[in-house]
Amino acid sequence: MDMGIAGRTALVCGASAGLGYACAEALVREGVHVTIVARTEGPLQEAAARLAALGAGRVEWVAADVTTSEGRERIFATPRAFDILVTNAGGPPPGDFRQWNEDDWQKALRGNMLTPIELIRRTVDGMMERGFGRIVNITSSAVKAPVDGLGLSNGARAGLTGFVAGLARSTVARGVTINNLLPGTFDTARLAGNFAAAAQREGKTPEEVRSSRVARHPAKRLGDPAELGAACVFLCSRHAGYINGQNLLLDGGSFPGVL
C-alpha cells in the first residue's frame, strides 16, 4: 500500500534506538524526509547513517535534549515545516509515591507530558495552515492499564492523553490528526535493562526474568519494534485522516479488557 506521504517532512524524537528509531525507519522507507533527535550524538549519527543507507527519504539529525527549552531551540533553530511529528521520551523510574517529592513529579511531567505538548505547540499551527499534519505520541500501555510502582509515568502520560483528546477535536477539520501509540513489552534495549534490574533485585539471571515474562504473555513473545513502526507510519499516512484522538494499544493482547 502506498502511504501517500513521500516527500513529507517529519520530526521523530528519541530516534537513535528502540521504538523511536523503528518509527523513523518506517517513515524513511516511505520516502519521508526525517529529522531525528536524541541526546547522545554518537549513537544518533550512527542511526542517521543507517537510515540514510536505505536510499529513500532524506535524513538529518539534531543532538538535543527535547525535555529542555535549550534542546527544543536547537531543533527549531533551522526553520523546518514539519508535516509529521512523533514524540517519544523514556519514562521516569519506578518507585513508591511516598518517596517522591515535587521535583520528581515536575521532572516526570516535563518529560512525558509538557515536552510533547510544547513540541505540538511548535508545529501544529503550521500543519493546519498547510492543510496536512500527523502527530503521533508514543506513550505507554500503562495509560490503558496503570502499572503499580509506575505512578510517575502513569500520571504524566495520562495528563498528555487527556490534553490530546481535547486538542485533536479542534485540528482534524484542517487536516491534522493527533493520536497516541501505547506500546506494551517490546524487544528493546530499554526493556532488556529493566529485565537486568529485576534480575538483580530477585536474584535471578536476566534470561530467567525474560523467559518468565514471555511465558505469561498471551502472544508468548515480545513485540518487534518494526511492528510499532508500521503502526506509526499508517497513522501518519494519507489513509488515516479519519483516525483522530485515539489511543492505539499494541501489547499482543495483554490488556484483559474489551475497551
Q: Classify the helix fraction into a percent range.
A: 40-55%
Round the Cα radius of gyration to an integer and report it. 18 Å
Run of helices and strands: EHEHEHEHEHEHHHE
> Strand sequence of the main sheet, in spatial order?
3-2-1-4-5-6-7
Give start-end ranges of low-pLDDT stretches.
Answer: none
Number of helices: 8
Shape: globular
N- to C-terminal distance: 28 Å
Biggest sheet details: 7 strands, parallel
Total count of strands: 7
Structural class by helix and strand composition: alpha/beta
Oligomer state equals single chain
Strand percent estimate: 5-15%
Mean pLDDT: 94
Outline of the structure:
The protein is of the alpha/beta class and 259 residues long.
Topology overview:
Blueprint: E1 9-13, H1 18-29, E2 33-38, H2 41-52, E3 59-63, H3 69-76, E4 84-87, H4 102-130, E5 133-138, H5 151-171, E6 176-183, H6 189-202, H7 206-216, H8 225-235, E7 247-250
Structure overview:
The protein has 259 residues and is α/β, with parallel strands linked by helices. The chain has helices at residues 18-29, 41-52, 69-76, 102-130, 151-171, 189-202, 206-216, 225-235; strands spanning 9-13, 33-38, 59-63, 84-87, 133-138, 176-183, 247-250. The chain has a seven-stranded parallel β-sheet, with helices on both faces. Helix 1 crosses helix 8 (225-235) and helix 4 (102-130) runs parallel beside helix 5 (151-171). The chain is globular and about 55 Å long. The two termini are 28 Å apart. The mean pLDDT is 94.
